[in-house]
Design a protein that fits this description.
The chain has 2 domains: 195 residues, PmbA/TldD superfamily (PmbA/TldD fold, 2-Layer Sandwich), CATH 3.30.2290; 224 residues, no CATH class. The protein is built from 9 helices and 21 strands. The strands form 4 sheets. The protein has a 6-stranded antiparallel beta sheet. Strands 10-9-8-13-20-19 form a 6-stranded mixed beta sheet, with helices on one face. Helix 3 runs parallel beside helix 4. The chain is globular. It starts with a helix and ends with a strand. The relative contact order is 0.14. The model has no long low-confidence stretch (mean pLDDT 96).
Length: 427
């Protein structure tokens, strides 16, 4: 065990409160160059983040070297002297939590045979289509995260993660597919087959005229648009900083009354499932929007203290050793389900440029990847080139229904969605 107690003891002399966040693990990864395995490599990683609070001034420092913990502590204290004093309600005290791990498969161990099996399975799946594999990768990691603070809190959790992805091409048409899980339930053959299908079926596309079309967004495309606009609008930090269109809309209908949006940190299949957040606050089910009506925003300790709110257990850390910030665990979108592919529409597998959407207004303009004309549940014709523009909030205001194909994409668990009369820019 790394000297967590020593850091807390020495930190207590220098600051009012001290927090230690430590992650260590091992990862195995492999890469494809065309249809050949180019490498499989193992790496071990360690990250330490120390946060100190003194007189309402919050300091933070990170290190990837366990021997540098004293320098890390000193740097945290020093950074706090440069911070602006703010209201602070204190770090959490320990709570009685369920100790059973979630988002963890104890049977998983970094094994090169697993990586090779994933890579070869994807190649096999892609080979059923007239395409070439251009690249791909697979990884498996197992890690332990420990969080402790000077109020007596000491939590630890294991976590596992498996991922696989592949890209294929047929002349100038490409296809990409991926999968993520905390256990070995990925089907690499299906991942490769889907990537191969997208590249093959997109070959020789037709032009379409600009105008309004009913649209089906795949879970991937749907996740990109709401991740760029809707989720940031629910962050308490953005709300109080004037960067959220929903800031004054609590209790109002903000999207289609058929839709609900919530964060479930205990979801069995969720990649972000956890019983405590990145600051040690117990997590809970958080209903953002219920039947179209806005009910809650998300808060971490810092934002909650500043604005007289309570943390919603929504703190996350990005990367190894990063400081806490408002995020999400497993955001679920739910509503009436239907066969979204049955009636004529434009199907959109992916979009390019969602990150350029205006998070305040909701306006976006994106290039479509692997679009198809669909009807009767089939992909009828690939579309050569097109864009889609609109407003995410307007788009979600009157929808046709959700598909039955829920998919875990990062911190989102979303299905495909059918939308009415979206503006497609063609020829």
């Amino acid at each position: 065990m790394y000297p967590i107690e020593e850091i807390l003891r020495k930190g207590a002399v220098l600051a009012d409160e001290v927090e230690v966040y430590l992650t260590e693990g091992v990862a195995l990864s492999g890469e494809l160059k065309r249809a050949q395995v180019s490498r499989v490599a193992e790496s071990r990683y360690f990250s330490l983040s120390v946060r100190t609070i003194k007189d309402g001034r919050i300091g933070n420092s990170q290190s990837s070297n366990p021997r540098d913990w004293e320098k890390c502590l000193d740097a945290s204290v020093a950074s706090g002297t440069l911070a602006t004093e703010q209201p602070w309600n204190g770090l959490p005290h320990p709570a009685k939590l369920d100790s059973r791990p979630i988002a963890f498969d104890p049977s998983l161990t970094p094994d090169s045979d697993i990586i090779l099996g994933l890579l070869k399975g994807m190649i096999e799946g892609a080979s059923s289509h007239p395409v070439e594999v251009t690249s791909g990768g697979a990884s498996l990691s197992v890690q332990t995260t420990t969080l402790a603070n000077s109020n007596g809190l000491f939590y630890s959790r294991p976590r596992s993660h498996v991922s696989a992805s592949i890209e294929t091409i047929r002349e100038n048409s490409t296809g990409y597919e991926f999968g993520n899980s905390y256990t070995m339930d990925l089907d690499p053959v299906s991942i490769g087959d889907r990537a191969g299908f997208l590249a093959s079926a997109s070959y020789g596309g037709i032009d379409i005229r600009s105008g309004p079309y009913d649209v089906v967004l795949s879970p991937v495309a749907f996740a990109q648009l709401i991740g760029a606009v809707l989720l940031p609008a629910l962050s308490g930090r953005n709300v109080h900083a004037g960067r959220s269109k929903l800031a004054t809309s609590l209790g109002d209908q903000v999207i289609d009354p058929a839709l609900s949006l919530s964060d479930d940190p205990f979801l069995e299949k969720g990649l972000g499932s956890t019983r405590w957040d990145a600051e040690g606050v117990p997590t809970r089910h958080l209903s953002f929007i219920r039947k179209g009506v806005l009910e809650h925003f998300s808060y971490d300790l810092k934002t909650a203290s500043r604005y007289g709110k309570e943390s919603t257990g929504s703190a996350v850390r990005t990367g190894h050793g990063g400081g806490p910030a408002i995020g999400n665990h497993n955001v679920i979108i739910d509503g009436p389900r239907m066969d979204v592919m049955e009636d004529e529409a434009i199907y959109i597998q992916d979009v390019v440029g969602a990150h350029t959407a205006n998070p305040l207004s909701g306006d976006f303009s994106v290039e479509l990847t692997n679009p198809f004309r669909i009807s009767g549940g089939t992909y009828e014709k690939p579309v050569r080139k097109a864009m889609m523009s609109g407003n995410v909030f307007d788009m979600l205001g009157d929808t046709s229904g959700l598909g039955r194909d829920d998919r875990v994409i990062g911190s989102l668990v979303v299905p495909s969605i059918r939308l009415k009369k979206q503006h497609i820019i063609g020829t």
